[in-house]
Amino acid sequence: MDYMIGVDIGTTSVKTVLYDTAGQMQGYSNNLYPLYQDVPDMAEEDPDEIFSAMIDGLTTVMRKADLKNGKIQGVSFSAAMHSLILLDEDHKPLTRAITWADNRAVKYADELRENGVGKQLYEKTGTPIHPMTPLSKLIWLRNDQPDLFKQARWFVGIKEYVLYRLFGVLQEDYSIANATGLFNIFKMDWDDQALEVAGITRDQLPKLVDTTDQITGMNADYAGVIGMDPQTPFIMGASDGPLANLGVNAIKPGVVAVTIGTSGAVRVVTDKPKIDPKGRVFCYYLSKDHWVVGGPVNNGGIVFRWVRDQLFAPEKLTAEQMGVDSYDLLTEIAAKIPAGSDGLIFHPFLGGERAPIWDANARGSFFGLTRTHSRAHMVRAALEGIVYNLYTVMLALEEVVGKPTSIQATGGFARSELWRQMLADIFEQDVTIPESPEGTALGAATLGMYALGLIDDLSVVKNFIGVANVHHPNPETYDAYRALVPIYIRLSRQLQSEYKNIAEYQRTHVHQKKQK
């Protein structure tokens, strides 16, 4: 039995999965690390903590491989998009990894949108203007931390840093580069205008390579710790969103992948880059003839966690004492409330929002609250609000790529039958839940097998996954959701004019009170 390893460097952990070459999981490791949020809008991670977690993950799954009767064919990488690390001349970090969730560049992202330059850049890079992008972060650092900015010799993301530590080679795959806001998707090269706006030069960025590119010759010390032949090929891989589509077999035109984990996304694959004239969706590279068009949302399962911790603390404690899952308990409570939550609408923008409004200042709200509404209504409205928001992304996506033919849904939410059915009802589409618990890692492993010639085509991934559940929309919910979704959309547009004002108040008054 030969093996392929998929490594998924995520926002909260590194997931390392050992697959056989038939795509079946043979070993798994999930290594956590903290997110640092010392000041408002900050969201950083320690790159060396991530590197250690990655080493631990590889070491763990290597112990589960039968190397007497098989070999490790390769290791392939997925990574969260939009991270930025400043390195000095010796490739030592000058900063932590500034993640996609960091909003400190909001002022400069707003300026790019308002002065028209942002639209020009989006039309060349396929990356919407938002403080998440390295482009915006670089402008912020150049203006607000000029001494630190001037010290930097290199500007990289977490995957590039990890691979440099392993191999001493600094290079970046097209997919991760595509998400920086600095990469021209039509020229497949760094974009001159974007570099000028960011205030950096081409020689401060890694060498660009395809997602199927391979590296060998790992540092002998690390290879010894992991227990791996240093000549084992490491495949660059791609970014997590495109690989998640691949890992759930959503790579044919019209097949949409909906993911709800901590955050969420709606994505579909096309054979060439496509741009939204309204700038609401991204376009990211996966591999030759495979481009992923879609929209990410900040607010997925993290909203459900907030509802549990802030509104249902007693039930959380009871669940722990009973040895049952607190989320399962909450979905049981929500299931007793009718579709539409009796007219209670929740905008789930607890951490700003990306698609489709691309507003880091967005804030959450309940609308329609009356004395007849209970906490049970609030938890159901929160779950519905997350799906409403994903549906608005789908509506934007339809204008660019057409109506979906089917939906493949994954993420932590897939454990909840209520949430799965809610997705089918609001989208009015059949929803299939692939039997692929770690779709992003499987996508990375599949791309790695393709790069190594172990499979002839990415579509082979369909043989690697089964079907866990299929949900059909319930027509009895149509009236409620068809009436409420337009209200949800109109409200988010009307409230947008005040999001900036309330966000500024919170950044100044609330933060100042906490400091005192």
Radius of gyration: 22 Å
Name the shape in a single word. Answer: globular
Number of strands: 23
Give the N-terminus to C-terminus distance in angstroms: 61 Å
**Within the largest sheet, what's the order of strands?**
17-18-16-15-21-22-23
Rounded mean pLDDT is 95
Uncertain segments: none
Helical fraction: 40-55%
Strand content: 15-25%
Structural class: alpha+beta
Main sheet properties: 7 strands, mixed
Q: Given the structure, what is the number of helices? A: 17
Question: What this model shows, in words?
Answer:
The chain is an alpha+beta fold and 516 residues long. It has 17 helices and 23 strands. A seven-stranded mixed beta sheet has the order 17-18-16-15-21-22-23, sandwiched between helices. Strands 3-2-1-5-14-13 form a six-stranded mixed beta sheet, with helices on both faces. A two-stranded antiparallel sheet has the order 4-7. Helix 11 packs antiparallel against helix 14, helix 13 packs across helix 14 and helix 14 (375-401) packs across helix 15. The protein is globular and about 65 Å long.
Question: What is the element layout, followed by pairings?
Answer:
Elements: E1 3-9, E2 13-20, E3 25-32, E4 44-45, H1 47-62, E5 72-79, E6 85-87, E7 97-98, H2 106-114, H3 117-125, H4 134-144, H5 146-151, E8 154-156, H6 158-167, E9 171-173, H7 174-178, E10 183-184, E11 189-190, H8 192-198, E12 207-209, E13 214-215, H9 220-226, E14 234-239, H10 240-247, E15 255-260, E16 264-270, E17 282-287, E18 290-297, H11 301-311, H12 313-322, H13 326-335, E19 345-347, E20 365-367, H14 375-401, E21 406-410, H15 417-427, E22 431-435, H16 439-451, E23 466-471, H17 478-515
Parallel strand pairs: 1-5, 5-14, 9-12, 15-21, 21-22
Antiparallel strand pairs: 1-2, 2-3, 4-7, 6-8, 10-11, 13-14, 15-16, 16-18, 17-18, 19-20, 22-23
